[in-house]
Amino acid sequence: MRTSEIAKRYLDYFKAHDHMVVPSASLISPNPTTLFTIAGMVPFIPYLMGEQTAPHPRMASNQKCVRTLDIDEVGKTTRHGTFFQMLGNFSFGDYFKEEAIHYAYELLTSPQSKGGYGFDPEKLWMTTFTDDEEARSMWKNEGVDPEHIQIMGMEDNFWTTGGPGPGGPCSEIYVDRGPEFGVEGGPIADENRYIEIWDLVFENYEVDNVKSKTDLHIVGELENKNIDTGAGLERLAYLMQGKNNIYETDEVYPVIEAAEKLSGRKYGEDAAADVKFRVVADHVRSALMIMSDGVRPSNNGRGYVLRRLLRRTVQAMRVLGVNDPVLPTLFPTSKTAMEATYPELNKTFHEVSESAYGEEDAFRRTLENGIAILDVAVNKAKKSGSESVSGEDAFTLHDTYGFPIELTLEMAADQGVKVDENKFRELMAEQKSRARADALKKRHNVDLSVYDDFKKTLAKPIDFLGYTDYSSRSK
Ligand code: ATP
């Protein structure tokens, strides 16, 4: 089943259960404390917090998300993307735990011929919060094997906003990929064999004094209890399509195929190269989606995240042996794979792709200038037996060749060495204080006589001619 069909079935199911289905909000988070929309619930926060009344007490969406926190996992685990889509159903003071559990179980286990996902109940596992006996008995009522219901503590299965406000236990749903993928014993034993697909949050408490997840105070029960759920579309797709990971699903894999053609190498033959193929596929799609929501490469905030995604793509392709421009092939491939769900990508694609290609050109120039210096530094490190590029070399690469430290770190790691980051930061700090001292010196040495003359003229009374001039001009 194609990814777009899996999303459609989710939204159709919840629409049939009286949910108002709304389109995805932008990836640019409306919340000033986060750069990107990181979860399906983000656009619904005012309703969940009771600050605004929702247009309908039950809603559902397929929300575009970006999580940069997961960037180091990309390509290495089977299940983490920087961009992914989160399906979600929400209840604002309407249905609660029993219905949320029932809806999730019914959609997951109903046969595909009847509009469901057709998961084998034997492969489903649930985790529940320590104190949440209620959720455990509800899962059992649905027919879940009691041995497949595990218990997790506050750290994993209790949700808060991080501050005072709503909070509550969660219950997560996992799919067992089978004994060839890890050890027995449910998600508690192995999160790579048992893949988390859906998180149900039951917001029934008001909490305050949230020092940490495990140190908070439950004030009492909320008057309006909410349901907030999030199901990873790519994770559902990877399991339902019988693939090995999210990068091999229909909306992502075409980029791997295009990268194979560009590099003349085959995906699936070398573990280290495969990680690069998957990084490329993930990052190209993230960059495309972020740019289509209006972000452009820059040196800070969202623009910098985007810049890093584009640069990491180019760098990963170089490791795969491609030195020529890659984005003019990979960007249109990703757009074609995504346009069934996001036809609006076509509206801005010309401008978006030109900007991405320009960024690639600029980065390739940076690389051309610095790459030989980096290679020398890496060889020096290897020869000296220190296994770290010196802080001095990393500083020169930054200062003279425009290599951001993240790039030096990543490129050094590609060649199996580290970087002396402490020394690098020390040199950066020294450079900053030198620059500050220089600025001060200039301030003191500067010839201020010109200002003295200016001050003298200002000391004379000034006749304000504005009104008269204005009235004479307007006649
Ligand atoms: P994990 O522990 O596996 O990283 P999570 O606990 O961070 O997941 P939630 O924040 O509960 O995940 O998000 C809800 C759902 O969104 C998850 O059950 C999963 O299916 C999906 N999801 C979360 N992060 C990612 C990601 N980086 N890439 C793809 N899907 C994701």
UniProtKB/TrEMBL annotation:
Keyword Iron: no
Compartments where found: Cytoplasm
Cofactor: Zn(2+)
GO molecular function terms noted in the UniProt entry: alanine-tRNA ligase activity; aminoacyl-tRNA deacylase activity; ATP binding; tRNA binding; zinc ion binding
Keyword annotations of the record: Aminoacyl-tRNA synthetase, ATP-binding, Cytoplasm, Ligase, Metal-binding, Nucleotide-binding, Protein biosynthesis, RNA-binding, tRNA-binding, Zinc
Keyword Transmembrane part of the UniProt annotation: no
Residues in Alanyl-transfer RNA synthetases family profile domain copies: 1-475
UniProt remark on cofactor binding: Binds 1 zinc ion per subunit.
Catalytic activity: tRNA(Ala) + L-alanine + ATP = L-alanyl-tRNA(Ala) + AMP + diphosphate
Record-listed E.C. numbers: 6.1.1.7
Main location: cytoplasm
GO BP, one annotated term: alanyl-tRNA aminoacylation
Enzyme class: ligase
Cellular component per GO, a single term: cytosol
Domain free text: Consists of three domains; the N-terminal catalytic domain, the editing domain and the C-terminal C-Ala domain. The editing domain removes incorrectly charged amino acids, while the C-Ala domain, along with tRNA(Ala), serves as a bridge to cooperatively bring together the editing and aminoacylation centers thus stimulating deacylation of misacylated tRNAs.
Protein purpose: Catalyzes the attachment of alanine to tRNA(Ala) in a two-step reaction: alanine is first activated by ATP to form Ala-AMP and then transferred to the acceptor end of tRNA(Ala). Also edits incorrectly charged Ser-tRNA(Ala) and Gly-tRNA(Ala) via its editing domain.
Family named by the database record: Belongs to the class-II aminoacyl-tRNA synthetase family.
Name of the protein in question: Alanine--tRNA ligase
Organism: Bifidobacterium simiarum
High-level lineage: Bacteria, Bacillati, Actinomycetota, Actinomycetes, Bifidobacteriales
Gene transcribed to yield this protein: alaS
Covered residues, full protein: 1 to 475 of 892
